[in-house]
Amino acid sequence: MLIVTTENVANHRVVRTLGQCFGIVVRSRGLGGNIIAGLRSIVGGEIPEYTRLLEDARRHAIDRLVENATAMGANAIVMMRFDSAEIGQTMSEIVAYGTAVEIEPASR
């Protein structure tokens, strides 16, 4: 599955637009991770526990995005974006979304 953040794919043309597709993940760091991260935030700088949590959540959201687009019959996703939000003070929501399309190589 080709995923791009652009509207077009170089040397390809969109033959069918299938609609919006998305993948959503809500994650929470455990109590131990929150305590360690809280202590690190006192000192300042990067908090690796949260960085890993969000990187994993983004990858998982992309996996779900691809599953959704594949079920729609797409072979590509254009205009892919991420959105995120906090739910309460312990959970993060990550959404990967875009437009599911069918593309083919452009004839020359």
TrEMBL record:
Pfam families in alphabetical order: YbjQ_1
Instruction: Classify the source by domain of life.
Output: Bacteria
* Gene3D superfamilies per record: Hypothetical protein apc22750. Chain B
Give the family per the record.
Belongs to the UPF0145 family.
Its name, as the record gives it, is UPF0145 protein GCM10007857_83010
